Amino acid sequence: MRGTDTRRGPNAALAVAVAAWALLQAAGLGCGRAEDPRRPNVVFLLADDVGIGDLGSYGGDVIRTPHLDRLASEGMRFRSFYATPVCGPSRFGILTGRYTRSFDWRGPIIRDPERTLAALFQQAGYTTALIGKWHGLAEIPDSLPTRRGFDRFYGYLMGHNNSPAVWREERVIEEKSPRADRTLRETEQALAFLRDVGGRPFFLLLSYTAGHNPPFASAGFRGRSASGLRGDMLEELDWSVGEVLGALAELGLEEDTIVLFTSDNPGTAPHSSGSLRGEKGSLYEGGIRVPLLVRWPGRIEAGSVEERPGHLVDWLPTLARMGDLELPRGRVDGRDLTGVLLGTGTRADEDFYWGIYAHRSGPWKLVVDPDGNEESDGLFDVDADPLETSDLAGAHPETLERLRRQLRDFWRGVDRRAGRP
Cα torsion at 264, 297, 187, 214 (round to 10°)? Predict the structure, then answer.
């Protein structure tokens, strides 16, 4: 009996072409997408008021964080990653890829339901879930998480002292939850979601309430750390991260899942920002620099360290690229970090904006005097002087004026595109 002749005919040529395309895609070299054709799952672990000094992988020695340290050793650690100085604007930036002009702690209302990061995943066929803190992004009923791209929601509309009610999707299921058990409950809900989602691609935003004052911890963690109740709280947070990582391994999802850990801003504890100047609420590095750990086995180099800066607003364009999602129409301020993470490129620029109050361009950072006194504006070379001990405004007046102009021009451009005078 003669075997099939694979050398002849249009079907054979097509088979060869398809095989070649598959090989290119498997190597990450195919056209139109730099990633594996299997779109990755995403687990976004967002802490509340946790700074670089709180993690062992950043040199912290006050609180034990073995699971977060393991995440750092298995992925990439960013040494200079930025948030805003308060909660709401950071969370707005993650979900929209946009900077905010001001720093009201509640953050702006997300008015376009189709342009959030969660909505992009949802439109691409992902199952999406938010567990934990939604914060001040939902002060009106139409802005509930389920109206902004999340299929599932378990948690709190505000998240810390002023939001005791527990919501599931669009209804209150518990009027007052025991604060001490929040991390425990959030973890249970996250594990249940991972086990329930089956083989469908998913985006999970596990938005912890842990980190924010006043501190809390469940009975199993209270009194365990050497640094009081806040230490207990953060060690329970670290335990939760370990549970999530363990579930991904148990379910065989490790290689197909991007896991990232960061925070909305540093805390106010003496060690939270390490030796950096400032704390939560400040525009100095200690008020805006947060930990970032990212793991994607086989794609992101284990144990790698990224020295150049990034910002929370970068996650929308980055995850859109990695998940082959369609970017929303209109303004996106963030930059794609895919090349940085995969070791194939750099961020498009090193320009960052904190409202109308601060701007970094390359190594230079402008901090505007909050009272409008230009003579008190600060200029720092944060590459050479990350502790911001030397104000160089007087020594580099041209650089000072250039950053002022860039800051003004950025927001004028935002206004012009929005049709504002």
Answer: -30
First and final CA of the chain: distance in angstroms?
81
Do residue 259 and residue 317 come from a single domain? yes
Q: What is the radius of gyration, based on Cα positions, of the chain?
A: 23
Single out the residue in 305, 330, 347 at which a domain terminates: 347
CA atoms within 13 A on the CB side of 259: 26
Instruction: Give pLDDT tens digits for 94-111.
Output: 999 999 887 765 656 677
Considering the domain architecture, whether residues 240 and 361 belong to the same structural domain is answered as no
Residue 17 inside a domain? The answer is no
- Of 67, 87, 212, 311, the catalytic one is 87
87 labelled catalytic? yes
The beta strand positions in 228-268, using DSSP E, are 257-263
31 is catalytic: no
Backbone phi, psi, residue 302, to 5°: -65, 135
Number of compact structural domains in the chain: 2
The 8 Å CB, 24+ separation contacts for 162-170 are: 170/144, 170/146
Whether 56 and 144 share a structural domain? yes
Instruction: Answer whether 73's CB lies under 8 Å from 246's CB.
Output: no
- Residue range 315-362, pLDDT digits in tens: 999 999 999 999 988 889 999 999 999 999 999 999 999 999 999 999
Same domain, yes or no: 339 and 227: yes
Digit-coded pLDDT (tens) for 29-81: 333 333 345 799 999 999 999 999 999 999 999 999 999 999 999 999 999 99
> How many residues are there in the chain?
421
Provide the 8-state DSSP code for 369.
-
Helices 66-73 and 228-250 pack at an angle, to 10 degrees, of 50
Catalytic entry in 67, 135, 212, 311: 135
Print the domain residue range for 209. 41-347
**Of 323, 347, 371, the domain-final residue:** 347
CATH number reported for the structural domain that contains residue 283 in this entry: 3.40.720.10
Q: Residues 393, 394, 400, 404: what is their CA dihedral angle, to the nearest 10 degrees?
A: 80
Looking at the fold, whether 374 and 250 belong to one and the same domain comes out as no
Is the model's pLDDT at 4 over the cut of 90? no
